[in-house]
Amino acid sequence: MSVGRPLIIWGARGHAKVLLDILRPPEYEVVAFFDNDPAAVSPVGGVPVHHGVEGFERWRIENSELRPAAVVAIGGSRGTERLVIARMLESAGCEQIHAVHTSAHVADSARLGTGCQVLVHACIGADAALGDACIVNTAASIDHECLLEDGVHVAPGATVAGCVTIARSALVGAGAVILPRIRIGSNAVVGAGAIVTKDVADGAVVAGNPARPRE
């Protein structure tokens, strides 16, 4: 019986469970979880969860013969944290892989950076470009010629119209709509259900219809 490629997942909570539905045998076999929360428990019986960078370093020493694939199961507005962990895993020899659900559509002309996640019924349109460690969540849509920089998360059901730029580590909330040719700034947060009609500044939090800054 063949064994799938060894896979490690950083993050042991809900988003990890979503990724387990994509990255599963016979292609992958999860061998370890990692989480910065010392209270985190493994979502898979028999597969250990190790805590923090120290736990990861101990695991690597004990399993130095492995060259595992890796994904980072950290979503929400924590794009910068996701990127830092992804870079650390890469430097340790763990290859960042894509997690693309079989029901998702990724246009032939679209480009995905390392470690991107495109979940159930999500759509990536023609000539769209995603940086590293981006998440396009359940039923979210990224239309033609959009640019998502590293660490962006587009939450379930969000619609990003054509030629939009979403800068590094921004979060687009569930069900939000971004109109064409708008720029969402780095580390910005677009609230759930917002309708964005104007550019959003770096670090801003916007919500409502039309979306306006929130304190």
Structure report:
This protein has 215 residues and is α/β, with parallel strands linked by helices. The protein has two domains: 5-96, Rossmann fold (3-Layer(aba) Sandwich), CATH 3.40.50.720; 98-204, UDP N-Acetylglucosamine Acyltransferase, domain 1 (3 Solenoid). Helices cover 14% and strands 29% of the residues. The chain has an eight-stranded mixed beta sheet, with no helix packed on it. Strands 7-10-13-16-19-22 form a six-stranded parallel beta sheet, with no helix packed on it. It has a five-stranded parallel beta sheet with strand order 3-2-1-4-5. The protein starts with a strand and ends with a strand. The mean pLDDT is 95.
Strand ordering within the main sheet: 6-9-12-15-18-21-23-24
| Structural class assignment | alpha/beta
Instruction: Give the proportion of residues in helices.
Output: 10-25%
CATH class term of the largest domain: Mainly Beta
Q: Which superfamily, in CATH terms, is the homologous superfamily of the largest domain?
A: Hexapeptide repeat proteins
Number of separate helices: 3
Shape: globular
**Beta-strand proportion:** 25-35%
Indicate the low-confidence ranges by residue numbers: none
Q: Identify the CATH architecture of the largest domain.
A: 3 Solenoid
Main β sheet profile: 8 strands, mixed
| Integer-rounded radius of gyration | 17 Å
